[in-house]
Amino acid sequence: MTVLEDATPPTTDPAPATSPPTRKPGPWPWALLVSSSLGIVSGAITVVEKIDLVADPTAGAFCDIDARLGCSPVLLASQSSVLGPPNALLGVIMFAVLATSGLAVVAGGRLSSGYRIAMVGLAAFFTIFLTWYMQQVAFSIGSLCPFCTVCAASALVALLATSRMAADPNGSRIARSLATAASGRTDILLISGWGLLIAAMLYAGIWLT
Fold it and tell me: What is the value of pTM for the model shown?
């Protein structure tokens, strides 16, 4: 008796589905997260010092070192609340928005092109505002608040980071312009020059007068 072999071809398991490779966030979301976190901490310290000084202007701040380096003259000046609330409180809010955006990308999220451009606008506005504030500190107040300086430096880094994150050679006109600046590292030169300008203002207004 002949046993017929099964002509049905053996079935094979389908190839296991492979998950898409995890996108690495790159250095700029990390730079945004770290710089904004530093800004939050520095701004929060400044808010607490501001509240204590308003309650007792004669108490002085713990960061008061001498007539040229101290928080009290800066925080008691009218320029420290030029928009109504303390500048530091507004800074904490803005840095919190930027830090959250950086954290979202670091965690694997993806931000829309419009949102990335909005982040650049927010960082640019805050950097311009802090540049004005540093000019007032240098030439009107005459005393340097260390924590305000950290906030200014953090804003510059955040502006560079958001610009790099929004750069897209295939995106909108703004995104393409940012991509062109990034390709030639023009953005780094501009931000570095901006920081040197702020440092020069502070040195000239506080230590050369």
Answer: 0.85
